[in-house]
């Protein structure tokens, strides 16, 4: 009860802080503060930082014809400026006002694309440049826009007349001053880090006193040291956050070098830690494991980032600060969540997936988590975040962590994760001929009185993944049959995998490649049920799941095994 009271107190403290933060933001957007954002207009852009995000000239053509495929939604403007129409999709609006789509115009490289980019920037300045409110001026969106305008200033200013040139620089300077005033009060997480990155880009790319660069560098270093963990993960525990932040940090490091400025050691150290962390989360096909807010992977994006990775050898197997384990032998990869939930204030995308795992063999995924539909309807997010959407165990179909559904909380904070495991113990058991770990969490202890312990062992040839799930009370007291001890252990099967039953009534998983995996369980007969895979590139897909269902009072421990019966000749390491 004391733990629940503590979570409630912390939650409402965060609500109060966020309410105060938004109140101060509204005040700073009003006429009393407006004068602080005016000032000297820079004479020119000194350097256009590089952009590592993928660009498609065809999208530039679509935009020219008034079709905007942003944030997974296509909006046709019918000849109007996109900034004139009211689109109810918040994600689409944020992407529009973030201006990252300018990269497609630069990729097109034509005078037509440059003129269109200039016209759209001019529209934004006229309609939103002097009215600080709404989605356009959310600090996180403003940070993206500053970076995009700097990175693609060459295409925007190509052939520009002097009045537009001055208006562009004046608006840019105003946005930078606004973001500088808001950065310290932004909510914790990657948006606040991106704001510091944007201000560092601005100090390097525009004429500015040395003190401005020193201040921006110092603030950036402080945020990096706090948000990037010792093993390269992000405090949100979201693999996608690592990819997104690297896509900004790598060009920033290059911009320091191009301007003959020494990048802060925190920047160099963060990149050196994050690149191996990105590789840690990758399966052999290049996709990232679906944990804590990760959805579909755009493979080319990761490949572009990893071209900057000079480290050699296999990925790390242990990420204790981020709370993940990796087993990789004989062409088989297993990635598991063995960590505590992230802090409440950065848990809007976090999942209740403690001790969940994914298994891939070669370039084929077999056992997965449901992941999220990045651009899908918000009402499906709670389903994707629940423990039942992960390849782990639930008790009485209840998640190991809870999500707040209070409207006042969600209006201020989104939907943070609360009441999850307080202790997660993990021990590696790597031995000759086997890699593995034993982990245990107490996410069900307060409500049901159980600890869940999972052991995974992968053989040296990668052909056998042996698992054990154990449910026990503290002190090893007997488990009573009280109607609150129903266990469901789930193994979500990737939708590309066929799930069949052989002559021996074993479950067989087959894909497009020559590998075949057989699932067996000694204590409980496996069943097959319908499932849904949210992380498909084209949106959610139907899939199936293998289920072990039993009462902990009758079966306190189950052993199961996934055995590869045919090998296509994969390398020994991945």
Explain this structure:
With 574 residues, the protein is α+β, with helices and mostly antiparallel strands. It has helices spanning 2-28, 31-34, 57-64, 90-98, 102-108, 111-128, 139-151, 153-156, 162-183, 190-205, 210-227, 239-258, 265-280, 299-306, 381-385, 407-413, 445-448; strands spanning 67-70, 73-76, 318-319, 324-329, 332-337, 357-361, 364-368, 393-395, 402-403, 417-418, 424-428, 434-441, 451-459, 464-472, 486-493, 498-501, 507-510, 516-521, 527-533, 541-551, 557-566. The strands form 4 sheets. Strands 3, 4, 5, 6, 7, 8, 15, 19 and 20 form a 9-stranded antiparallel beta sheet that branches. A hairpin with a 7-residue loop joins strand 19 (527-533) and strand 20. The longest helix has 27 residues, at 2-28. It is elongated. It starts with a helix and ends in an 8-residue tail after the last strand. The relative contact order is 0.09. It comes from Mesorhizobium australicum. This is Heparinase II/III family protein.
């Amino acid at each position: 009860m004391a733990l629940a009271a503590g979570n409630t107190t912390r939650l409402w403290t965060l609500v109060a802080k966020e309410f105060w933060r938004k109140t101060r933001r509204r005040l700073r957007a009003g006429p009393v503060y407006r004068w602080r954002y005016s000032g000297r207009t820079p004479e020119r852009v000194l350097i256009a930082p590089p952009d590592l995000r993928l660009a498609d000239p065809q999208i530039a053509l679509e935009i020219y014809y008034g079709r905007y495929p942003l944030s997974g939604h296509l909006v046709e403007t019918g000849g109007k400026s996109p900034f004139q129409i009211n689109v109810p999709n918040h994600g689409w609006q944020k992407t529009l006002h973030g201006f990252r789509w300018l990269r497609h115009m630069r990729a097109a490289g034509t005078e037509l694309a440059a003129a269109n980019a200039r016209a759209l920037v001019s529209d934004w300045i006229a309609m939103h440049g002097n009215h600080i409110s709404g989605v356009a001026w959310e600090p996180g969106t403003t940070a993206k826009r500053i970076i995009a305008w700097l990175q693609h200033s060459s295409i925007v200013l190509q052939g520009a007349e002097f009045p537009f040139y001055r208006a562009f620089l004046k608006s840019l300077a105003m946005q930078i001053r606004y973001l500088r005033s808001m950065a310290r009060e932004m909510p914790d997480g990657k948006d606040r880090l991106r704001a510091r990155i944007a201000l560092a880009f601005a100090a390097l790319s525009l004429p500015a006193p040395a003190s401005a660069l020193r201040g921006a560098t110092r603030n950036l270093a402080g945020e990096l040291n706090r948000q990037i963990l010792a093993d390269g993960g992000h405090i949100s525990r979201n693999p996608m956050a690592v990819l997104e932040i690297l896509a900004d940090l790598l060009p920033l490091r290059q911009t320091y070098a191009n301007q003959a400025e020494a990048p802060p050691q925190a920047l160099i150290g963060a990149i050196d830690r994050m690149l191996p962390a990105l590789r840690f989360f990758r399966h052999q096909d290049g996709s990232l494991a679906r944990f804590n807010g990760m959805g579909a992977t755009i493979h080319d994006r990761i490949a572009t980032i990893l071209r900057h990775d000079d480290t050699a050898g296999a990925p790390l197997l242990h990420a204790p600060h981020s709370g993940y384990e990796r087993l990789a032998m004989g062409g088989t990869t297993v990635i598991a969540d063995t960590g505590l939930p992230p802090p409440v204030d950065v848990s809007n995308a976090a999942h209740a997936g403690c001790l969940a795992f994914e298994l891939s063999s070669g370039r084929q995924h077999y056992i997965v988590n449901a992941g999220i539909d990045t651009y899908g309807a918000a009402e499906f997010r709670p389903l994707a975040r629940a423990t039942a959407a992960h390849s782990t165990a639930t008790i009485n179909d209840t998640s190991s962590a809870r999500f707040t559904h209070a409207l006042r909380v969600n209006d201020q904070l989104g939907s943070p994760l609360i009441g999850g495991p307080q202790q997660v113990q993990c021990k590696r058991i790597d031995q000759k001929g086997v890699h593995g770990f034993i982990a245990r969490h107490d996410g069900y202890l307060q409500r049901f009185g159980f600890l869940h312990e999972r052991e995974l062992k992968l053989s040296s040839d990668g052909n056998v993944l042996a698992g054990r799930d154990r449910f026990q009370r503290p002190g090893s007291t007997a488990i009573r049959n009280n109607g609150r001890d129903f266990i469901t252990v789930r193994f979500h099967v990737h939708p590309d995998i066929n799930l069949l039953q052989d002559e021996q009534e074993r479950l067989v998983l087959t894909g497009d490649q020559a590998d075949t995996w057989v699932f067996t369980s000694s204590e409980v007969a496996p069943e097959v049920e319908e499932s849904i895979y949210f992380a498909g590139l084209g949106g959610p897909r139907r899939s199936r799941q293998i289920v072990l269902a039993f009462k902990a009072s009758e079966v306190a421990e189950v052993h199961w095994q996934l055995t590869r019966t045919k090998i296509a000749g994969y390398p020994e390491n991945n």
